[in-house]
Amino acid sequence: MRSIAIGAAALLAVSAVTVPTANAAGAPDLAKLVTVKDIRKHLQALQQISDYNGGNRQSGRPGYDISVKYVVSQLRKAGYDPTVQSFPFWVYDQLGPGAFEQVEPNRVSYRAGTDYGTYEYSGAGDVTARVTPVDLDGDQGPAGSSGCEMSDFANFPKGNIALIRRGTCVFGDKAKNAAAAGASGVIIYQRTGADVPNDPPAVYGLSEPAPFPVLGTTYKIGNGLAAAARAGTLKVRLKAETRNVSRPTYNILADTRWGRSDNVVVVGAHLDSVHDGAGVNDNGSGSAAILAIARQAHRLGKKGLKNKVRFAWWGAEEAGLLGSTHYVETLPAAEKSKIALNLNFDMLGSTNFVRFVYDGDNSMGNPTIPPAGSGAIEKTFVDYFAKRGLRTEPTAFDGRSDYGPFIESGIPAGGLFSGAEGVKTPEQAKVYGGAAGQPYDPCYHAACDGMKNIDWTALDQLSDGAAHATQRFALSTLPVNGEARRARAPRARAHAPIWKGGKVVR
């Protein structure tokens, strides 16, 4: 691994300081106190809640609200005084496949799920209108900014459908600009032939509901439509069968009784599932693990809890990190400066797992550079597993989980992940076992993400790592932030993340 941004010399200076080990104060080993039996009990509860409440625990729906009540009740039994933080949320339903048809100059019907897909938070409607291209003559690659500026819509005919190419800014901004220009609908097509329109369905998302249908299509189809659109001869029909309903949803926050309140360790996991299933692995596994950790953390006592630990269960992660973003953005600056670091645990029991550790030292060279101190968090996990003779490998900070708002605010972050829809390589199969060429989690965002979709060995090992790091930083954050409170400025990034939670947003 490369050293973190402060440089090798600074790291050597830190290593020369005597840093307390996880249980140097004579406290019990938290990783041994937290058992798979405890975690399994919580997962069974979440599964049962899903089974009796529509088959999911999606934010804004009964299964999520009752999951919140379950976590709160477990925390109170353990002696916590949890806070339930409400925030507004749009519940999205796709009620049907909709339609996408070329009406003029030719009659062509496109296939749902293959040729086109409906964006999450598309408005409902059935629109037939002329199509106007929006800044399609510029950069054809990822830097292309079609629809990103209002100037792209100069002289846009009101009531027409906007044909926009993917690139640069988030999809939601393209849709907002089109609405402001008076468009009646939007088609967003991919920027290369390698992109697919909707894989899996509704993976592409807007940030909030649009006032009209927003459909996505392939590069081949979109590029083919562009010539007729430029000539002014293209008319299409867009139909979106959707529903967007505003409802509150919730975060849960619970602080340990002891520890410095000006050097807080935030340990988080998202509690919500997608609409299609119970979300036992994604992310019941992380939620249950930190709940088991929280219920045992008081046994560390005053000597083991030098820093306050704030356990957090985030809502609406699957809709774009909404809960964690709300928490970070509404936290007063003085309180935000008291957060030492964030540990994030999302999917710890994938059945074709890899022991992934978030890439805090940026050895992968990703455009989102983690805040200083994130490399020390990564090293804490890597060293723990190495002492147990267990291999790990880095995974990118790519915006797919609730660390995102923290690193954007300059707060060091790290965590563990066992894999989602990515495919296991032959090299990984040799190290971790399992099946090469298959997804890490074959039930990712699917109805089969239930109790049978857990590898208990992976969950045992990764929850041990989570407990170890929680105890380690509850005792000392010296390698991460020098244990000094300081204000932070938002971090500049080379590029905004493509993912925000489970949705592609750019």
Short key terms for the protein model shown above:
single chain, 506 residues, alpha/beta, 8-stranded mixed beta sheet, 15 helices, 21% strand, elongated, disordered N terminus
Poorly predicted runs: 1-20, 198-202
Largest sheet: 8 strands, mixed
Read across the widest sheet, the strand sequence of neighbours is 1-10-12-11-13-16-14-15
Distance between the termini: 30 Å
- Percent of residues in helices comes to 25-40%
Subunit arrangement of the protein: single chain
Q: What structural category do the secondary elements indicate?
A: alpha/beta
Rg over C-alpha atoms, rounded to the nearest angstrom: 24 Å
Which band does the percent of strand residues land in? Answer: 15-25%
Number of strands: 18
Number of H/I helices: 15
What general form does the structure show? elongated
Query: What's the average pLDDT?
Result: 89
Describe this structure in words.
By secondary structure, this protein is α/β, with parallel strands linked by helices. Helices cover 30% and strands 21% of the residues. The protein is built from 15 helices and 18 strands. It has helices spanning 8-15, 30-33, 36-51, 62-77, 171-180, 219-231, 280-297, 301-304, 322-330, 333-336, 374-387, 404-408, 426-432, 456-475, 478-481; strands at residues 83-94, 99-104, 108-109, 116-118, 125-133, 161-165, 185-189, 214-217, 235-240, 242-255, 260-270, 307-314, 339-345, 356-358, 393-395, 413-417, 499-500, 503-504. Strands 1-10-12-11-13-16-14-15 form an eight-stranded mixed beta sheet, with helices on both faces. The longest helix is centred in the last third of the chain and has 20 residues, at 456-475. It is elongated. The two termini are 30 Å apart. The relative contact order is 0.16. The model is unreliable at 1-20 and 198-202 (pLDDT under 50).
